[in-house]
Specification:
The complex is a heterodimer of chains A (about 120) and B (about 120).
Chain A (H helix, E strand, L loop, with lengths): L3 E4 L2 E5 L4 E7 L4 E9 L6 E7 L4 E4 L2 E6 L4 E6 L8 E9 L8 E3 L3 E6 L1
Chain B lengths: L4 E3 L2 E4 L5 E6 L6 E8 L3 E9 L2 E4 L8 E7 L2 E6 L8 E8 L10 E2 L3 E5 L1
Parallel strand pairs in B: 2-11
Antiparallel strand pairs in B: 1-3, 3-8, 4-5, 4-9, 5-6, 7-8, 9-10, 9-11
Classes of the chains: A mainly beta (about 120), B mainly beta (about 120).
């Protein structure tokens, strides 16, 4: 069964500190892995998209890594800001196999950055 | 800055009523997605269209849900009849690639639906 597990479920850090969020998946065949940031009451915003061959991708203070062998990804946030407080969602896409359920979603990590 | 626009932002109605949610994708995007988000289930893909043609609606309850794209600037998601378990936030997203492509999807801010 295709699954995406995110950890931790929630995290509180102090402003200025770094943090790392984890995403483990069992999706196969794998197409790509996306990280989204979702502010309360808003739609998700794409942070990074990584394919099988990519190990790391950055978007400002956000850096995502991917290990396709162990089926693990992480999202590292550097020098956190209050505006980083949000939910972070990991989504894994299946290769096109004419089947349904082509996206598998993680349950998200809720991050709170405190002053 | 181009955005996906969803209307209404909030909808409260009684069980059994028809609900229509609308989405205006970003101009030039040829793929439109409908998602549902609840506290219990998280995000789920309901359906998506490419060049206005439905490609996959396997995530959508067929008996009461229908999705259409009458033109390139409007996508609709209808629920008839609505039930309390349909209460959720419904998101529309648009992009330039299929669901498994490496193109980013741009989300609207959702319709928060409450069925009493």
């Amino acid at each position: 069964k295709n699954q995406v597990e995110q950890s931790p479920q929630s995290l509180i850090i102090l402003e200025g500190k770094n943090c790392t969020l984890q995403c483990n998946y069992t999706v196969s065949p794998f197409s790509n892995l996306r990280w989204y940031k979702q502010d309360t009451g808003r739609g998700p915003v794409s942070l990074t998209i990584m394919t099988f061959s990519e190990n790391t991708k950055s978007n400002g203070r956000y850096t995502a890594t991917l290990d396709a062998d162990t089926k693990q990804s992480s999202l590292h946030i550097t020098a956190s800001q209050l505006s980083d407080s949000a939910s972070y969602i990991c989504v894994v896409s299946l290769m096109n196999n004419n089947a349904g359920n082509m996206l598998t979603f993680g349950g998200g990590t809720r991050l709170m950055v405190k002053p | 800055d181009a955005r996906v626009t969803q209307t209404p932002r909030h909808k409260v109605t009684e069980m059994g009523q028809e609900v229509t949610m609308r989405c205006q994708p970003i101009l030039g995007h040829n793929t439109v997605f409908w998602y549902r988000q609840t506290m219990m289930q998280g995000l789920e893909l309901l359906a998506y269209f490419r060049n206005r043609a439905p490609l996959d609606d396997s995530g959508m309850p067929k008996d009461r849900f229908s999705a259409e794209m009458p033109d390139a600037t409007l996508a609709t998601l209808k629920i008839q009849p609505s039930e309390p378990r349909d209460s959720a936030v419904y998101f529309c997203a648009s992009g330039l690639g299929q669901v498994y492509s490496n193109q980013p999807q741009h989300f609207g801010d959702g319709t928060r639906l409450s069925i009493l």
